[in-house]
């Protein structure tokens, strides 16, 4: 007769150990709060970088996901806030899935989260080239008109028999105002700094501030931080540049010397990749 415990007898002890490990792991909200404090950020800083409302950030840190408006939006907020506080979002998303019945089937999300993909560059007209051509045409027309008007005045003077005399003072010819020089396009500096054998990406916070992250083709981090309004960063690599924009609606992009015309939504998180061939010629 055996006195040892059967495998069935050992299961309760294993379950107790799993319960103890689960209790030792911090909650999602607590983990995000600790990471934010460790990064030296306030709730207002996180809200500004992610465009997630302050009340929702506070609620998530208290493990209250009801204000998010649903599991899909809650997952998106967790992912965005985790990146802003330099925390890997995947373990938190798995923990959320375990607590809320697994991952849902893919459904259309709000504009803030439908940008979680690498979007192909939209082809559009080259407005810079069109503007330069128009300015050249206007300057040429004005110059031709001035020259033609001067020739016609000289011919009329000869036909009337008038000849200039030494005593007659020279008539002052009114100076024509020169056409104002066109303002330089913001992309001029980007064009000048865009070698053909590399990919060059210029990120400017034109309409507000935004958290951005940039990596090269090897995954090496080039920049990770908050870009305030009016500030810009330029990145170069031999093959590709990978970007994450915390608030794409506040950002203006120039890729390989060309302005990116894309309707980024305010508060949208964009993940973008650009190579030496971008943007495609339309």
From TrEMBL:
Name this protein carries in UniProt: DUF4115 domain-containing protein
UniProt entry tagged with the keyword Cell cycle: no
Biased composition (Acidic residues): 12-21
Keyword match Glycoprotein: no
Organism of origin: Streptomyces sp. SID12501
Biased amino acid composition, Low complexity: 163-173
Compositionally biased spans, kind Basic and acidic residues: 174-186
Keyword list, A-Z: Membrane, Transmembrane, Transmembrane helix
Residue stretches spanning the membrane: 127-147
Coiled-coil blocks: none
Lineage: Bacteria, Bacillati, Actinomycetota, Actinomycetes, Kitasatosporales
Residues annotated as domain Cytoskeleton protein RodZ-like C-terminal: 206-273
Segments of this protein annotated with the region Disordered: 1-28, 155-191
An MF annotation (GO) of this entry: DNA binding
């Amino acid at each position: 007769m055996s006195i040892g415990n059967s495998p069935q007898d050992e299961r309760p002890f294993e379950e107790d150990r799993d319960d103890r490990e689960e209790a030792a792991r911090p909650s999602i909200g607590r983990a995000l709060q600790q990471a934010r404090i460790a990064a030296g950020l306030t709730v207002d800083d996180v809200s500004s970088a992610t465009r997630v409302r302050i009340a929702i950030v506070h609620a998530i840190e208290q493990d209250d996901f009801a204000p998010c408006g649903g599991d899909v939006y809650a997952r998106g907020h967790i992912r965005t806030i985790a990146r802003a506080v330099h925390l890997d979002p995947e373990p938190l998303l798995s923990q959320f899935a375990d607590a809320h019945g697994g991952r849902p089937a893919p459904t259309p999300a709000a504009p803030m989260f439908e940008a979680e993909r690498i979007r192909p560059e939209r082809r559009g007209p080259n407005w810079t080239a069109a503007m330069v051509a128009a300015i050249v045409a206007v300057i040429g027309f004005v110059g031709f008109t001035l020259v033609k008007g001067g020739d016609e005045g000289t011919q009329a003077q000869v036909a009337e028999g008038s000849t200039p005399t030494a005593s007659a003072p020279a008539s002052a010819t009114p100076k024509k105002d020169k056409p104002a020089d066109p303002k330089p396009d913001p992309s001029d500096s980007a064009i000048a700094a865009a070698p053909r054998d590399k990919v060059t990406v210029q990120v400017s916070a034109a309409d507000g501030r935004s958290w951005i992250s940039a990596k090269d083709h090897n995954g090496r981090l080039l920049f990770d931080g908050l870009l305030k309004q009016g500030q810009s960063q330029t990145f170069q690599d031999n093959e590709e540049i990978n970007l994450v924009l915390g608030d794409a609606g506040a950002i203006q992009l120039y890729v390989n010397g060309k302005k990116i015309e894309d309707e980024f939504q305010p508060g949208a998180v964009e993940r973008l990749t650009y190579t030496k061939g971008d943007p495609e010629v339309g």
